[in-house]
Amino acid sequence: MEFKHKSVLLKETIEYLKINPEGTYVDGTLGGGGHAYEILSRLSPKGRLIGIDQDEDAIKAAAGRLAGFGDKVRIVRSNYQRMREVLEGYGILKVDGIVLDLGVSSYQLDDPDRGFTYRNGDAPLDMRMDNRQKFTAKDLVNTYSEMELYRVIRDYGEDKFAKNIAKHIAAARKKKDIETTGELTEIIKAAIPAKVRMSGSHPAKRTFQAIRIELNGELEVLKGSLEDMIDILKPGGRICIISFHSLEDRIVKNIFKKSENPCTCPKDFPVCVCGKIPIGKAVNKKPVLPSEEEIGYNSRAKSAKLRVFEKMGKEIEGR
User: Fold this and answer.
1) Helix (H, G, I), strand (E, B) or coil at 280
2) Short-list 182, 192, 162, CA closest to 119
3) Highest mean pLDDT: which range of 87-96, 262-271, 275-284
4) Are 98 and 239 in contact (CB under 8 A)?
5) 49 SS3 class
6) DSSP letters spanning 85-154
7) Suppose 191 and one of 132, 168, 211, 270 were both cysteines; which one would form an S-S bond, judging by CB atoms 3.0 to 4.6 Å apart?
8) CA atoms within 13 A on the CB side of 262
């Protein structure tokens, strides 16, 4: 199956990056190379881009798409949480810009063999972003306790029927292991009232999303990496992050806010005495949303939000 993915908020992301033709950029979620292609198209022979992705199929697709840029691009199979390590491997300490397009690619959702989706047939439960990982969605569904499943579906799926869904999964696997996307989908459907199933989005959507996030440690990776990525930026450099989940967006918003105003002094102190100074600013106080036109030709853009942070200028470099 050909790797296809429509890059969301592409025009807006490129504009907010304020690309320096001789700069160094990182696409930490390379995917099919959509954002990377547009960045590379704007770089001079002195500019370069490091593309990072943990998905084997994405690496192959991007390598083909970006081959014409020659030495301006380097592609690495890794997780963006190891961005600093990857960059140091090329002798790079600071960069002019970083792009993260979080979530699942169209290819991953559309390929039933990857086990991400509840829509296409009855595929093995997988959901791994990186097939070098041994633990799969099947393992998670069959080994997590009922309470752990409830926590995952409640916190990451934000599903009001989380408790009942976890109960039905625990009961079903006593008879036999839950092995396929189809089996899990039917169990989830049975846990949700018929009236609710008939309205709104697919009844399995939130649970599948929750399992995927837990399995791949998506929120923990983002939370544990973002401050380090901001530190990697040169003064004046920008990081653009596209999220598709309210919890992702909240993490990004809060870390940007903390980086912009790190002061820990009590609010009633007349002056700051903690000594913590801003390291940058959130460029857009509210997230940039896709246009109606974009949503019209790419429905998966509907929940996308773009936030941008800019590192402080030279006057505080090194602090």
Assistant:
1) strand
2) 182
3) 87-96
4) yes
5) strand
6) HHHHHTT---EEEEEEE-S--HHHHH-GGG---SSSS--BS---SSTT----HHHHHHHS-HHHHHHHHH
7) 168
8) 11
Chain-centroid distance of CA 272 in Å reads 35
Cα separation of 83 and 228, whole Å? 9
Q: Could you tell me if 285 and 212 are in contact, meaning their C-beta atoms sit under 8 angstroms apart?
A: no
User: What per-residue confidence (pLDDT) applies to 270?
Assistant: 81
Looking up tokens 């190891």, which residue turns up? Answer: 82
Q: Give the pair of three-digit tokens for residue 211.
A: 């399992």
Per-residue model confidence as pLDDT tens digits over 291-302: 999 999 988 889
pLDDT tens-digit profile of 104-117?
877 677 777 888 88
Give yes or no for a contact between 232 and 98, defined as CB atoms under 8 angstroms apart.
Answer: yes
Phi, psi of 317 (to 5 degrees): -55, 135
SS3 sequence, 24-67? EEEECCCCCCHHHHHHHHCCCCCCEEEEEECCHHHHHHHHHHCH
203 and 192 Cβ atoms separated by less than 8 Å: yes
Residues pairing with 77 in the sheet: 53
- Determine the Cα–Cα distance for residues 31 and 54; give it in Å rounded to an integer: 9
Q: Beta strand 95-101 with 233-243: parallel, antiparallel or unpaired?
A: parallel
- Say if residues 190 and 207 touch (Cβ distance below 8 Å): no
> Is the per-residue pLDDT at 3 higher than 60?
no
Q: Predicted confidence band at 315 (pLDDT cuts at 50, 70, 90)?
A: very low
Distances, alpha carbon 284 to alpha carbons 121, 156, 256, 312, in Å = 41, 26, 10, 15
This prediction's pTM:
0.91
What is the structure's pLDDT at 4?
53
**Cβ contacts of residue 173 below 8 Å, gap of 6+?**
141, 142
Nearest to 100 by CA among 244, 215, 214, 300: 244
Q: Is 213 exposed, middle or buried (0-12, 13-18, 19+ CB in 10 A)?
A: buried
